[in-house]
Automatic annotation (TrEMBL):
GO terms for molecular function: D-serine ammonia-lyase activity. Residues 106-245 form the Alanine racemase N-terminal domain. It comes from the Bacteria. This is Putative amino acid aldolase or racemase. One of its GO terms (biological process) is D-serine catabolic process.
Length: 372
């Protein structure tokens, strides 16, 4: 990958990058979209995770390649921005929001009542949302978070029937579906994974089977970027969710994503190069190393270019001008562009406010990002 990174660095230098910025490679992104289409069951709807792809032009580009049922959205600011920018997108909230947050969203965007599936994880939150619906005289769409093995909250499958009935009889609410997240499955060791996969599927099946038989067109959501390929339409789920895999930060380097390309990078100028740099306080000792200082630092990312450089154990981490250490014969110059792979995409791809879109050896667009 060194030749690719060298070309990318030169492209960004020629474009005039002079401060840290996020970069997305459209050729790699397109290849990842094709692969995601090919490895997922065509009978399942696909929902993009907005927090993992927090840029509307980026989402639009992907939606031009992958047909989607809507977005999974996780925060009030991003939800409000997307509701105002788009008029028809369906939003499944990916984590339970405080009812006060939902109230503000409904005040600014009353049509959120029909465009948003609010996630309910407990009887207490259900009570709060039903009170809000009664107060506003709106029929809120409520989706149930079900614990299918991750144990990060949500209803137990045996609770679903009673909660669904409570929603069903309330004139100011309607059941929109269930969501079961299972991020633990891909990360368990092999001897635990097979049993956990079966237990997770059984829990999801039990929850779905508990829903009212009269309910039609429900959103039965599961999966994630490391597991979405494993679901089939003949099973209980109606849709799968993914996002990060299309950018493939380092946290998503996994056997299930081996064929996907890293498509997002942090680019930042090299401020200084210091061959044979002495140790602080030990000026009489020279080192057979080259140090360089980048613009900014403490990014949630791993250095990948120039080749052979990594975080300095001598200078430590810094948000201002972080020092990397590499080989003594490294040919690096101030002003050239260093590259890092993000460890995650959420709260990282949009951290600089702007994203550069690259195709081939050209920067083809600058995209404004969404708020977290």
């Amino acid at each position: 990958m060194t030749g690719y990174l060298q070309t990318l660095s030169e492209t960004l230098h020629a474009y005039g990058v002079d401060q840290p910025i996020m970069v997305v490679d459209l050729d790699r992104l397109d290849a990842n979209c094709v692969l995601a289409e090919n490895v997922s069951d065509a009978g399942l709807d696909r929902r993009l995770v907005a927090k993992s792809l927090p840029c509307l032009p980026l989402l639009d580009h992907i939606r031009g390649k992958i047909q989607t049922s809507g977005l999974m959205t996780f925060s009030e600011p991003m939800l409000l921005a997307l509701l105002k920018l788009e008029t028809k997108t369906d939003h499944l909230i990916g984590k339970p929001l405080p009812v006060s947050s939902a109230a503000r969203v409904l005040s600014e965007c009353p049509d959120a009542a029909v465009r948003v599936q609010w996630l309910i994880d407990s009887p207490e939150r259900l009570k709060a949302y039903l009170a809000l619906a009664t107060d506003r005289q709106l029929a809120l769409r409520l989706s149930l978070e079900v614990d299918i093995g991750l144990h990060r909250g949500g209803f137990q499958p045996e609770q679903v029937a009673g909660i669904a009935q409570e929603i069903d009889v309330n004139p100011n609410a309607r059941l929109s579906g269930v969501m079961g997240y299972e991020a633990h499955l891909a990360k368990l060791p092999g001897f635990l994974r097979k049993r956990a996969v079966r237990a997770s599927a059984d829990a999801f099946d039990q929850a779905v089977s508990s829903l009212p038989k009269t309910a039609k067109g429900l959103c039965l959501n599961t999966g994630g970027s490391l597991t979405f390929q494993s679901y089939r339409a003949e099973e209980k789920a109606s849709e799968i969710a993914f996002g990060s895999v299309l950018a493939k930060p380092t946290d998503f380097d996994h056997p299930t994503t081996r064929e996907f390309f890293p498509a997002a990078f942090i680019a930042t100028p090299i401020l200084k190069t210091m061959p044979g740099n002495s140790l602080p306080g030990l000026d009489f000792l020279s080192r057979r190393k080259t140090d360089l200082a980048i613009f900014g630092g403490y990014f949630r990312a791993q250095p990948v270019f120039p080749k052979g450089f990594g975080y300095s154990s001598v200078f430590g981490r810094s948000t201002s001008q972080e020092v990397w250490t590499g080989p003594p014969a490294a040919s690096v110059k101030p002003g050239k562009i260093a590259l890092l792979r993000p460890t995650q995409s959420e709260a990282v791809l949009n951290q600089f406010g702007t994203m550069l879109a690259v195709r081939g050896d050209q920067v083809v667009d600058e995209w404004e990002c969404l708020p977290n």
